[in-house]
Amino acid sequence: MSMSNPQVTAYPFLKALYADDYYPDHVLDRAREILLRLCERIERERPADLAALYVLTHAATEEFNDLEAAFDAAGSEIETVAREEIGEQFWFIAHAYGFAAADSEELISGRNW
Q1: Are 35 and 64 in contact (CB under 8 A)?
Q2: E strand or H helix at 96, and its extent?
Q3: Residue 2: its pLDDT value, please?
Q4: What is the number of domains present in the chain?
Q5: Mean local confidence (pLDDT), 79-89
Q6: What is the per-residue pLDDT for 61?
Q7: Which candidate, 11, 28, 35, 6, places its Cα nearest to that of 108?
Q8: Does some domain include residue 35?
Q9: Burial 100-113 (b: 16+ CB within 10 A, else e)
Q10: N or C: more exposed end of the chain, with fewer CB within 10 A?
């Protein structure tokens, strides 16, 4: 499925992290794919409310939890800068799909990073 939301299709996910050599591109590519899959799920499943959106964002957050080992193996980590950037990406996605009342912390509440 391709995404139809023009805000999302034009958005440079994780741009700040790609610009920093501390974060390996091959791991960021996997992180970007998690975010794109989240967008695809939102478009496919069309969550009716915040509770339904949070189910989807929590699943994506779990994928980021699993990705932490790949960051570690590449000599990097999901530390403060990355944590904030990833959180901002979730917030952007929520807003792009009309969930302006989404709580930025609740979107990623299951994070281990």
Answers
A1: no
A2: helix 80-96
A3: 80
A4: 1
A5: 97
A6: 98
A7: 35
A8: yes
A9: eebeeebbbeebeb
A10: N
By residue count, the chain amounts to 113
What pTM was estimated for this model as a whole?
0.96
Give tens-digit pLDDT for 19-63. 999 999 999 999 999 999 999 999 999 999 999 999 999 999 999
Residue 64 lies in a domain: yes
Residues 78-91 as b/e (b if ≥16 CB within 10 A, e otherwise) read: beeebeebbbebbb
CA distance 75 to 67: 13
DSSP 3-60: ---HHHHT--TTHHHHTSTTS-HHHHHHHHHHHHHHHHHHHHH--SSHHHHHHHHHHH
pLDDT above 90: residue 93? yes
